[in-house]
From TrEMBL:
Regions that span the bilayer: 12-29, 41-64, 80-101, 188-210, 222-242
GO cellular component assignments: membrane
Protein name: Major facilitator superfamily (MFS) profile domain-containing protein
Database matches in InterPro entries: MFS_dom, MFS_sugar_transport-like, MFS_trans_sf, Sugar_transporter_CS
Lineage: Eukaryota, Viridiplantae, Chlorophyta, Chloropicophyceae, Chloropicales
Species assigned in the record: Chloropicon primus
KW Zinc (keyword) present: no
Length: 255
């Protein structure tokens, strides 16, 4: 980037990916984990965000203040740091494509019942294949197979319009509208959205100010970022043990 407008453009493009992967990731965990361990799995997944911030802060401390140059490619400074930070994103794409099953809900909406049955079998196997889960799965598989046997064609449950970007956005708008019509659901969405907004505003406001504080103290800004990132570790560890014992609401309030 050679100007602030270019920085803003590239940051906007990066935000499209960041803003998309967070809801996709947490909804995926909720859909593919058993309710008895879902809280802990959510905590483990969320803690990797903290782990990533610690590692990138450490890399920034090691690379940015020093004259580190990649041999043969003559890349150093912030360019080298950007290259290093891009590599985990590429690895994430490879791992997701290679090891994750598709969402059964998504496959059912697409009327891909056999693929949904296969995905459900893998999910139950990962979650321990308990007796109740196996009974539920056998009944559900029978339902899916019967639907598949009685259905012909390759159309989508959303219709042809749902295959397009505009059609998908319209369908999402309809779902959101239906969600907000019910009083209790609307209340839950508004409250949780407000809580998340307040927490994000507090956190990012603090993080924006913090580098200025380190500069005013004549401290190493990058080392300060590393220490700040490590500060999230105790909360993640404690939450792992208390979230299923105290409940989601109490854990949220205490955190």
């Amino acid at each position: 980037a050679e100007s602030m407008s270019q920085v803003a453009l590239f940051r906007f493009l990066a935000g499209l990916g960041i803003g998309g992967n967070i809801p996709a990731l947490f909804s995926y965990v909720a859909e593919t984990t058993s309710s008895r361990v879902r809280g802990k799995y959510m905590t483990i997944v969320a803690s990797h965000w903290m782990l990533g911030s610690v590692i990138t802060a450490a890399l920034g401390w090691l690379i940015l203040p020093r004259d580190v140059t990649l041999p043969y490619l003559n890349i150093g400074g912030w360019r080298l740091y950007f290259v290093v930070c891009i590599l985990p994103a590429i690895l994430a794409c490879v791992l997701a494509l290679a090891f994750l099953v598709e969402s059964p809900c998504y496959l059912i909406r697409r009327k891909k019942f056999l693929e949904a049955a296969g995905a459900l079998e893998k999910i139950v196997a990962v979650n321990g294949n308990r007796h109740n889960d196996s009974l539920f799965l056998s009944e559900l598989l029978g339902l899916l197979h019967s639907k598949h046997a009685g259905w012909s064609g390759t159309g989508d449950v959303l219709g042809a319009e749902g295959e397009t970007l505009v059609g998908g956005m319209k369908h999402s708008a309809v779902l959101i509208s239906q969600l907000l019509k019910a009083r209790e659901q609307r209340k839950l969405v508004v409250v949780l959205g407000t809580v998340w907004f307040c927490l994000s505003a507090c956190w990012y406001g603090f993080m924006i100010w913090l580098p200025q504080f380190f500069e005013a103290q004549h401290d190493n800004v990058y080392l300060g970022n590393l220490v700040t990132s490590l500060g999230d570790l105790p909360g993640n560890v404690i939450n792992f043990f208390i979230i299923d014992k105290l409940g989601r609401k109490n854990a949220l309030v205490l955190s």
